[in-house]
Amino acid sequence: MRALGDVNLIGADVVEVSPPYDHSDVTALAAESLAADMLLLMRNQKLRGKAAVTNASGAERARYV
């Protein structure tokens, strides 16, 4: 997941984690780890989007995504 830093991530979802059937909590911990990584990727993408861009008139402005 962490190697996807350059991918334009739009959304993410964790599906089918059932704690009653996960006796050792391995699936729940893996899902939590993936969800945290996805949130961090989206946060980092948003922070990178604050770079200055040039508009049609040549003036630079801050872009907030």
Provide a compact summary of the structure:
With 65 residues, the protein is an alpha+beta fold.
Number of domains: 1
Write the H/E string, N to C: HEE
Beta-strand residue percentage: 5-15%
- Tell me the number of strands: 2
The biggest beta sheet, please?
2 strands, antiparallel
The quaternary state of the protein chains shown equals single chain
Q: What order do the strands of the largest sheet run in, or round the barrel if closed?
A: 1-2
The average pLDDT is 76
The helix tally amounts to: 1
C-alpha geometry = elongated
Q: Based on helices, strands and strand pairing, what is the structural class?
A: alpha+beta
Low-confidence runs of at least 5 consecutive residues: none
| Helix percentage | 25-40%
The whole-angstrom Rg is: 18 Å
- The N- and C-terminal alpha carbons lie at a distance of 22 Å
Outline the structure in words.
With 65 residues, the protein is α+β, with helices and mostly antiparallel strands. It has one domain (2-62). Helices cover 35% and strands 9% of the residues. The protein contains 1 helix and 2 strands. Strands 1-2 form a two-stranded antiparallel sheet. The chain is elongated. 0% of the residues are buried. The model has no long low-confidence stretch (mean pLDDT 76).
